[in-house]
Write a structure and sequence with these properties.
heterodimer; A: 264 residues; Glycerol-3-phosphate (1)-acyltransferase; eight-stranded mixed sheet; 8 strands; B: mainly alpha; Non-ribosomal Peptide Synthetase Peptidyl Carrier Protein, Chain A; 3 helices
C-alpha cells in the first residue's frame, strides 16, 4: 500500500515536472527571454546570455526533481569539465535528462540536438536564441563543418553519438556523425558516461510509468583524449578512420556502461 | 575501360575507401541499406571518382543513384562524354 502510494506520488511528481518545464518555457519565453534578446550587445553576447539562462533553468529543474524525491544526479570527475573548451563532449543518452544535465554543467556549450525541438512550440524560441545545432540532415557536410569550426574556435560541443535515447540493457549503437566530426577535425574528446538506475524516462515508456524507486543518474566525466588515441589514423582514408573510430568509441562507452550494469 | 573494368575499379575503390567486404559489392547492392554508406561517404566517393575518371564530377550526377550498378552507369556516361 505504502509502496503504491510512493509510486503514485512519483508519477504525479514527474507529471508536475513536465508541466513545470512546459509552463517555465512559456513564462520565461515571454518575460526573461525577450529582455535578454533586447538587451544591448552583439549576437555572440546575446547567445551567451541565453545559454546561461537555459543552464540556470535546467539547474532549477534538476533541483526540483531532487527536492521532490523523484531522482538525483551524481557527478564524478567534475574537475575535467574545466578542460571542456575546444573539445568535443561525447555522452551516452539513457534518458531525457542527459542534455539537461550536461547543459546545466556546461553553460556555454554548443549542443547538437534533435531537429524536433525547433518545431516544438515550447522549446523553439530557446533553441533558436541559444544557437544550438540541429541534427537535421539537410546538408550533412555543412553540419559537420559547422561543428568542427565551433570546436576549433574554442567552443565546447556536446553530442550524443547514439543520436537517440538508448534502450537499457541493449548494446550501444553509435552513429558515425560523432566520429566524422572528431576524425575530420582531429579533435580531442571528453567522454561522459551516463547511466540511470533504475532506468527512467525512456523512449519506450510513458512519463507516468516511473521506476519502482527513485532513480540515480550517474554522470562520469573522463579525462580528455585525442581521437587518435582511439584509432591511430596513419594515412587511412577518412571514411575508414571514421568507421574504426566509431567502433572504438562505442566499445569504450560500452565497457563503462557494462561496469555500471554490473554494479547496480 | 569496358563495363567489366569499370565495375572492378569501382569495387576496389569501395573496398579501399570504406573497408567493405568485396563479396557484398554486387551490382544490385543498395548503397545505404546494404553497404551502410552515408551521405558523407557519398561525398568522399564523388571526390575519388573524380580522381579515377579524370572528369569533373558534380554531386548532381549522382541524384537518384541507389545501387552499385547506378554508380557504374554514371561513371560510364562520364567517360563516354566528350571532355
Amino acid at each position: 500500500m505504502l509502496k503504491k502510494l510512493a509510486y503514485g506520488y512519483r508519477a504525479l511528481g514527474t507529471g508536475f515536472c513536465f508541466a513545470g518545464f512546459g509552463a517555465g518555457c512559456v513564462v520565461v519565453g515571454l518575460t526573461l527571454l525577450p529582455v535578454i534578446l533586447l538587451w544591448p550587445g552583439n549576437a555572440t553576447a546575446r547567445r551567451r546570455r541565453v545559454r546561461r539562462l537555459v543552464s540556470l533553468a535546467f539547474r532549477v529543474l534538476l533541483a526540483a526533481i531532487r527536492g521532490l524525491g523523484l531522482g538525483r544526479v551524481e557527478v564524478e570527475g567534475r574537475e575535467w569539465l574545466q578542460h571542456a573548451a575546444g573539445r568535443l563532449v561525447l555522452a551516452t543518452h539513457p534518458n531525457y535528462l542527459d542534455a539537461v544535465v550536461l547543459l546545466s554543467l556546461l553553460p556555454m556549450a554548443d549542443c547538437v540536438i534533435k531537429s524536433g525541438l525547433w518545431r516544438n512550440p515550447f522549446t523553439r524560441a530557446f533553441v533558436i536564441a541559444a544557437g544550438y545545432i540541429s541534427n537535421s540532415n539537410e546538408d550533412p557536410v555543412a553540419a559537420i563543418e559547422t561543428c568542427i569550426r565551433a570546436v576549433h574556435g574554442g567552443q565546447t560541443l556536446v553530442l550524443f553519438p547514439e543520436g537517440t535515447r538508448s534502450t537499457p540493457g541493449a548494446p550501444l549503437r553509435f552513429r558515425r556523425g560523432a566520429a566524422q566530426i572528431a576524425v575530420r577535425g582531429d579533435l580531442e574528446i571528453l567522454p561522459v558516461v551516463m547511466h540511470c538506475s533504475p532506468p527512467a524516462l525512456l523512449k519506450t515508456t510513458r512519463w507516468y510509468q516511473v521506476p519502482e524507486r527513485a532513480w540515480v543518474l550517474h554522470v562520469k566525466i573522463f579525462p580528455p583524449r585525442c581521437v587518435s588515441d582511439f584509432v591511430p589514423q596513419v594515412s587511412l582514408p577518412p571514411a575508414i578512420a571514421v568507421r574504426r573510430a566509431t567502433r572504438a568509441l562505442q566499445n569504450f562507452f560500452q565497457e563503462q556502461i557494462t561496469q555500471y550494469e554490473h554494479a547496480y | 575501360m569496358d563495363t567489366q573494368d569499370v565495375f572492378q575499379k569501382l569495387k576496389s575503390t569501395l573496398v579501399e575507401q570504406f573497408e567493405l567486404d568485396p563479396a557484398k559489392i554486387v551490382p544490385e547492392a543498395r548503397l545505404y541499406e546494404d553497404l551502410d554508406l552515408d551521405s558523407i561517404d557519398a561525398v568522399d566517393l564523388v571526390i575519388k571518382l573524380q580522381e579515377i575518371t579524370g572528369r569533373k564530377v558534380s554531386p548532381e550526377d549522382f541524384k537518384g543513384v541507389r545501387t552499385v550498378a547506378d554508380i557504374q552507369r554514371v561513371i560510364e556516361k562520364l567517360i563516354a562524354a566528350p571532355q
